[in-house]
Amino acid sequence: MTPDWTALDLELSRWRDIGLTLPLWWRDDDAIAPTAALDQLSALAQTLALPVHLAVIPSSATPQLASYVSAHPELIPVVHGWSHSNLAAEGEKKCEFPAHRPVEAALGDIEAGLARLQDLFGARLEPIFVPPWNRIAADLLPWMAGAGFAALSTFTPRTKAKAAPGLAQINTHLDPINWKGSRSLVAPDQLITQVSRQLQARRLGTADNSEPYGILTHHLVHDTAIWEFTAALIARLMQGPAQVWQFDKRMI
Length: 252
Description:
By secondary structure, the chain is of the alpha/beta class. Helix content is 35%, strand content 15%.
């Protein structure tokens, strides 16, 4: 069934009518090595003219991935935890950096992740930290800028522009994967309603439109439905009020 884009098209039309622009970015998680799925992600980013911030798992990242990224400027590497290991206590949601973990140990992994990816990617690496499962203990955040990071990225609209002094909060807002069910595409009508309402809140001033609007994907687990919806959504946004967001340390 073809998705009904009417609600989003109407909202985008209202944005254009009042000259409002949407800062847009794309984050894709769990990269380790070149794959056919990464080829597809890269090609789609080129077609859509929207770069992908590729969240790379430091402990498993290969030199081949670094070579691939160096040849694909549409891919922007960022740091995705250390090993993507679940260290949460029993009964808690998955997390590599939970509150019960000693700060020194957690920071050691965070700094090691940054160092490893700096070695692999050099100046191409952006100092953005993406905690696995979008979770990180609050007591780690005041240390992040000193560890070398300029931004933190999790999921859902941010409540403030900075996660901690010197650390911008740059979140993602829409994930098309039904993780708790089919692991395929969330019902398209549900996704279209979600993004339409999120954009309406920004237009009306009840949500922060200075925060880049983030699309979150996971190329390694996409099926055809996820690829097709993601492409169609981003194409619509790019034809409407969206402007490509680029990280700038001066925003801190």
